[in-house]
Every structure is written in C-alpha cells, then in structure tokens.
Amino acid sequence: MQEKIIILDFGSQTTQLIGRRIRELGIYSEIIPYNKYPFGQEKEQGIIGAILSGSPLSVYDEKAYKVDISAIANAVPVLGICYGAQLMAMSGGGRVEPAPSREYGRARLSFVDEACPLFDGIAPGSQVWMSHGDTITELPDGFRCVASTPEVRYAAFEASPTMWGVQFHPEVYHSECGMRLLENFAVGVCGASCSWSAASFIESTVADLKEKLGDDRVILGLSGGVDSSVAAVLLNKAIGRNLTCIFVDHGMLRKNEFSEVLRDYEVLGLNVIGVDASEKFFADLAGVTDPEKKRKIIGADFIEVFDAEASKITDARWLAQGTIYPDCIESLSITGTVIKSHHNVGGLPERMNLKLCEPLRLLFKDEVRAVGRALGMPEHLISRHPFPGPGLAVRILGDVTREKVSILQEADHIFIKGLRDSGLYNQVWQAGVILLPVQSVGVMGDERTYERAVALRAVTSTDAMTADWAHLPYEFLAKVSNEIINKVRGVNRVCYDISSKPPATIEWE
Ligand code: XMP
Question: Is the pTM of this model over 0.85?
Fold first, then answer.
C-alpha cells in the first residue's frame, strides 16, 4: 500500500502548493475536498497523516466548512494551516476573531519552542508568510503556544500529541522554514519513508494498469504534447500492442511537427496510427473568423475524425487520456459546490461508450516530466512548450487558410529554432508567433512592399494562469526579426508582444 499524506481542501488558493511541497519531500500526497475524509479507513488506504488547508471563509461564518478534527487526530497526526489551525482552536473551545487589520506578507518568528517536534531545527528570526483576516485570540485549555511573531501571539500551537496548528503558510516559498516544518511533520511526526519517486510511480502504475486492463484493448489520442506522450509510453510499458494510439493532423500544427513527432512515437515503439485529416479541417474552417467558432469546429471535427478511426478497433474497451492533477483537482466554490471538473477531450468517452483510463491523473506537470525522463523518453518531447489543441488556427487572427498557416509555420519555426539555438527555449514557458490581420508598407531593395505583420509572443509562467512577457535579449529579438523578414515571403514587419496575463491572455484568440 502506497503511504500517503492527505490534504483536506477548504478552498484555499495554496492547497495545491501544499500537495506539491509534500511530493517534493518524496512523499505521496492526495488533495481531497474537506468533507470527503475517509474516516476509519486510514490503514486500508495507507494514510499516515493529514493536513488541513486554508480557506477564504471565516471559521465563525454560518456556512464555515467543518470537519471532525479530533476523529482524524485519533487515527493519524494532523497539521492545520491558517483556517485549518483556526478550526482546531475554535473546535477545542478557543476564540477566533477578525484581526485588527488583515495580516498579509512577511513576518519573523520572535519566539519558537524548539523542543516542539514541528519546530525542530527552526530558530527564532526565521521568516514566515502570513495571509489571514482572522486571528486566534484565545487558545483552548490544553493547547500550548509553540511559536509567535511580533504581531501574532499564537503563530503556532501544539494541541495534543497528534495535533498542531500554524497560522502562517509553510507551503509558500517566502516561508524560509516552511519546507523544514513540513518535513518535521511528515517525516518526523508521521514517519513517512520518502520513497515516492518517478521510478516508484512507474513500477506501481504499470503493475496497476496490467491488473486493471488485463487483455483489454485501449485507445489513446496523442497530441504531440508531454502529457499524452508520457501516458502513451507508460501504457505501452504495461500492455504493449493492446494500446493503439491515434495522432490526428488537423493541418495546423507547427512546421514538420506531424511527421517528426510521429517518427518519435514510432522510435519509442508505440503502436500509432497517424491520420492526416487536414482537408476536412480546412474545408470546415473556410471563411470562419470568430475565435470561439473556430475552436468549436476544430473540436467537433477532431471528435468525428478520432471516432471514425477508433471505431475500426471494434473490441476496444478503454479510452486513455493524459489528464494531469491540476486538470482534475476539484476546486471548491464558496458554496461548497465543485466549480471545475475538466476532461481533455470533452464528450469523447461518453460518445464512444468506453471506460476512461487516466494514468497521470495524480501527477503535477513537473512530475509528468520526471516520469517521462525515467521512462527514457527523448528530452525534446519532454521539455516541449505547451501548444493549444486548435494549434495555429488560434494564432491566425481572422480566417484560416493553408497559405496563412504555411507563412506562420515558417515564421514560428525561425522563432522557436532561434530560442533553442540560443539556449533560451527552456527559460520561457511558452512561445509562438501570431499572424496579424494587418498589412503595412515596407521597403525591400528599391521596391515598396505592402505585406503582413507578425507578432512574437514569449511568456514566463508556472501554470499559465498568470504570465509575464519574457524579457528576451534585444540582440536575440533583432536576429529573429531580421531572419523572419528576410526569409518568410509575405512578411515585412515583426512586433514583440509585451503584455502580461492578466489583463492580456497568452494566446491572442
Ligand atoms: P490563454 O490564452 O487563455 O492560454 O492565456 C492559457 C494556456 O492555454 C492554452 N490554450 C489552449 N489550449 N485549447 C487548448 O488545448 C485551446 O483552445 C486553448 N486556448 C489556449 C494556451 O496555449 C496557454 O498555454
């Protein structure tokens, strides 16, 4: 049984981060909604500890999310963070009140009880990160204060031999002692063995897949992206030729991408069918300018083409997808209802009457990459930038034609190759070129030109939710601009997009 730490999500923005930090310690963690704790099944499920997250709510709100903390602490050690700590204090009979002013940002520990196992090796003076509107003003009987800051008297407490609370956020990078504190809890208190790694994940997942899938046939849609590629290689290891991969070319991939990636897949030993369906996509997109309409047409065409190909495998029982953890963590709205539930290829499993297999659904992106490396996949497949499903269609403002796609492919190729050659590729999250619906005057040789403009887009990000424009060196931008104008017929002007997200988005459509 895989040992794990459970993180109970009360809706905080940093819940995912707690999960990540525990995984960084080499310990498997799972995030579940606060009201889904499997009481009484700790041994069966390998649960060795629980962490209660923060929340946008106040513990004294009528609608506050509650859980029976004592019942959990009777079975495994519990650490409450922010709201989680306040909930512990309040349930024990203490007092939580609005802070005189919202405490947000850095603070330094002024007092630390170093004999407390949670603070082993953490000295006064260490910086912690606060973000709370409420504060604990009175600890219940039997609770003991184990850390303070100048502003927050009860920055941490010990409630019983198996219960602790911290008002600050150890999961946040700015809490200098945060990792140490989480390690003290997970390893020192819960006794985690830190054996979670890419290799151990592969071993246990391959064994699980073998057992679950038996001799069943499985179909998987490859996109060329990291997630579907790693899922395919993992499944191939488990069930070999019983996996059939389908890679659809809608005609709006990058230059040579379809043939190159198809070759990569074949070298990896995958049983892959490449389908060139570009005629259909271009025909259905003709004259369409509205971005959402373009997306809808591409989505519907994709399902049709994929379905037609997949139905040739008449005995298929499963549809596999490269869904990853951030796609499926249920984030809670204030009312407690699930507001995000995501599937890569919406509607496909239902339509095809297949069971769903998602072997990466519990991994974060960097873990997917680590698994890919441990599976021996080539680095250029693993470290690829994200690329939108509708491809270059959403990077051509206005209607999409073969001619425009081919101009954009050339410009994009120069930009991306330039980033790779200059060692800048891995410093940006995502990059590409946008073909603008604008023509402008230029001069080439002695001739006046009236040609298209393109915009270069490169961003830094950690999750695509927010992004900053990448501060690429001027010399590099000059070189790329020069090469595009000289080599790509039909383009005489290059701009660089310096907008961050928000308020802009990464793509232009
Ligand atoms: P935005 O433009 O919303 O993009 O800042 C955020 C991330 O999502 C990608 N993206 C898409 N991916 N289908 C996809 O599979 C789409 O329609 C789509 N639109 C945007 C975008 O490339 C970026 O990584």
Answer: no
